[in-house]
Amino acid sequence: MLFYDSPNPAPNPRRVRIFAAEKGIELPSQEVSIPKREQKAPEYLGKNPRGQTPILELDDGTVIAESVAIMRYLEALHPEPAMFGTTPKEIAAIEMWSRRVEMILMSAVGAVWVNTHPFTAALPGRNAEWGEANRPRVADAFRFFDESLKNFEYLAGPDFSVADILLLTTADFADFVGCGMPDDCENLRGWHERVSARPSSKA
Amino acid sequence: MLFYDSPNPAPNPRRVRIFAAEKGIELPSQEVSIPKREQKAPEYLGKNPRGQTPILELDDGTVIAESVAIMRYLEALHPEPAMFGTTPKEIAAIEMWSRRVEMILMSAVGAVWVNTHPFTAALPGRNAEWGEANRPRVADAFRFFDESLKNFEYLAGPDFSVADILLLTTADFADFVGCGMPDDCENLRGWHERVSARPSSKA
């Protein structure tokens, strides 16, 4: 298999690198440069017509796009340590919190990113007003996670899971975009220190 | 367990109803009226602070929010027929296509819905221009799925899966919002007829 990777600050490839590091999986990889727009080159579009990284290409030619799909594939091959839960309630909680990170936080951070950041705001179809309107939504989303982290050490419960990987990579990308965690989010900041102290966070 | 449900056109509760019908699961349910804004009432917010339906409340008081999390919980309890795949490649393909429905289509339909539809466009923080800019994105997304349905009977391969449930409910909601499938999407229209002919689609 070959992992088509892009370096930080791209948040989605980093999810998979952290996931693989937590499992001790070595992924042969090839870099796709986003500043050089290599993800929009014809050869890459032939593999993923969405023109996004990461993808995982299997030896039989199958291409898996979407970071969470790649992580689920790796989980199926290497079940331990479980990152998507094992009991029905764990599986549900991890999916619920993962989706909340995507739907509440990542969607708002993405709106700020594409509509206001100098790297992308000049592309056609952008709307600066919509981007700015999403800054308070990002802050509200962080406060929602801060509140929920009162009760548990990790986002979906007592154990580190893929939900933490999604929140960590999104929070760090939000910081890069200029809409990072509010100062008053103490539970969230404590959680961020804990997960950033794991060796996998450097992946 | 008790399923807090909202009737059509709400797309997310319908996902779970279709999923349960495919598995032959009877879900005791209670209606939450979105026109009456019952999902924002204090008692409901105590169960799901996001103020969204559906949720599944377990007998021990655990609340599972997010339609896909509820479906994964039900899949863990009732594995047959498998809706999230069983082999690593099936699991990955179903997750990839499910996420593409959410990220490419549902996000654009949602942007049209909240920013342009009379039911929601008058709420604070809306942006009519952004809503209108998402109409062509909805059409592009439908064309992407149309192209992929050239090769397979169902969205993620030869078998019906949760990815089809997400696409069906989103396509029908898009139609309600006024941005339904373009006429030239023949593969998609054939697929829509096939999945709409399943008894579960009436759930």
Topology, element by element:
The structure is a homodimer of 203-residue chains.
Chain A: E1 2-5, H1 11-23, E2 29-31, H2 42-47, E3 55-57, E4 63-65, H3 67-77, H4 88-116, H5 128-133, H6 135-148, H7 162-177, H8 186-196
Parallel strand pairs in A: 1-2
Antiparallel strand pairs in A: 1-3, 3-4
Helix pairs in contact in A: 1-3, 1-7, 4-6, 4-7, 6-8
GO molecular function, one term (chains A, B): transferase activity
Keywords (chains A, B): Transferase
InterPro entries (chains A, B): Glutathione-S-Trfase_C-like, Glutathione-S-Trfase_C_sf, Glutathione_S-Trfase, Glutathione_S-Trfase_N, GST_C, Gtt2-like_N, Thioredoxin-like_sf
Give a verbal description of the structure:
The structure is a homodimer of 203-residue chains. Chain A has 203 residues and is of the alpha+beta class. Chain A folds into two domains: 2-77, Glutaredoxin (3-Layer(aba) Sandwich); 88-202, Glutathione S-transferase Yfyf (Class Pi), Chain A, domain 2 (Up-down Bundle). Chain A has eight helices and four strands, in the order βαβαββαααααα. In chain A, strands 2-1-3-4 form a four-stranded mixed beta sheet, covered by helices on one side. In chain A, a hairpin with a 5-residue loop joins strand 3 (55-57) and strand 4. In chain A, helix 1 runs parallel beside helix 3 (67-77) and helix 1 (11-23) packs antiparallel against helix 7 (162-177). The two termini of chain A are 19 Å apart. Chain A binds chain B through residues 49-50, 58, 62, 64-66, 68-70, 72-73, 76-77, 87-89, 91-93, 95-96, 99-100, 102-104, 107, 125, 127, 129-130, 133, 144, 147, and chain B through 49-50, 58, 62, 64-66, 68-70, 72-73, 76-77, 87-89, 91-93, 95-96, 99-100, 102-104, 107, 125, 127, 129-130, 133, 144, 147.
